[in-house]
Design brief:
Blueprint: E1 7-10, H1 16-27, E2 32-37, E3 49-52, H2 58-67, E4 73-76, H3 90-117, E5 122-126, H4 139-159, E6 165-170, H5 189-202, E7 206-208, H6 211-219, H7 224-227
Parallel strand pairs: 1-2, 1-4, 2-3, 4-5, 5-6, 6-7
């Protein structure tokens, strides 16, 4: 699909990668951008349409789908990273799953009829290299993102009949507040947003946003011990 003239909705649009998506959509000539956040007072750009959305609340998601009934591109960007362990407190793990898995699944389910009515359009799901790999501090996040990757592939198959294109996005660390504590290479949110919208326009199913995501995905075909060497 073409970004120019499109109507897009971006979750978690008030900072980081979400804000970069908004900027890139506007730069490419999107006709309208719904910028969503739980607190819409944090969205002050006069070029966008602020929209309250809490992806963990079904009623909020349903209200957003009614308000943005003209959308033909949905970017599931909102997420959290709590450091929850799969062996730790179950409530912390559920919070990771609710935001990083059920949230985007809920949004896509609510907007699927909207996209169908508007010609098919596209869905972007921001995943992670941790969809394929777990570190000692990322157990809950990795589990949620792995589930979201599986859901993305299922959505691609299930929504193909209505002409909706689904793009999964994998990347390592982004230069955002969420990864401020990390030393090492980070990808610019602006750069990743541009790669993703290129993929949307080209009809590509997947974005591997950096060298790390490309290396890890290639490693899935090899010995698991090699993939985890030095990471445990």
């Amino acid at each position: 699909m073409r970004i120019e003239g499109a109507t897009a909705l971006v979750t978690g649009a008030n900072r980081g990668l979400g804000k970069a998506f908004v900027e890139e959509l506007l730069a490419r000539g999107a006709a309208k951008v719904y910028a969503t956040a739980r607190d819409v007072s944090t969205i002050t750009d006069p070029r966008v349409t602020p929209l309250e959305l809490d992806i963990t609340e079904p009623a909020s998601v349903a209200a957003a789908a009614r308000a943005a009934a003209d959308a033909d591109l949905v970017v599931n960007n909102a997420g959290i990273a709590t450091g929850a362990s799969v062996l730790g407190d179950e409530n912390d793990l559920r919070r990771e799953l609710e935001t990083n898995f059920f949230g985007p699944v809920r949004v896509t389910r609510a907007f699927a009829p909207v996209l169908a009515a508007n010609g098919g359009g596209a869905v972007v799901n921001v995943l992670s290299v941790l969809s394929w790999l777990s570190l000692p501090s990322t157990g809950g996040y990795s589990a949620a993102k792995a589930a979201a990757w599986a859901a993305t592939n299922a959505q691609r198959v299930e929504l193909a009949g209505q002409g909706t294109h689904v793009v999964g996005v994998h990347v390592g660390y982004l230069d955002t507040e969420m990864a401020a504590h990390v030393d090492g290479p980070k990808t610019s949110p602006d750069r990743l947003a541009a790669q993703v919208l290129d993929a949307v326009e080209a009809g590509e199913p997947e974005v591997l946003g950096d060298d790390l995501s490309r290396q890890v995905k290639a490693g899935l075909a090899g010995d698991l011990r090699d993939l985890y060497a030095g990471r445990g």
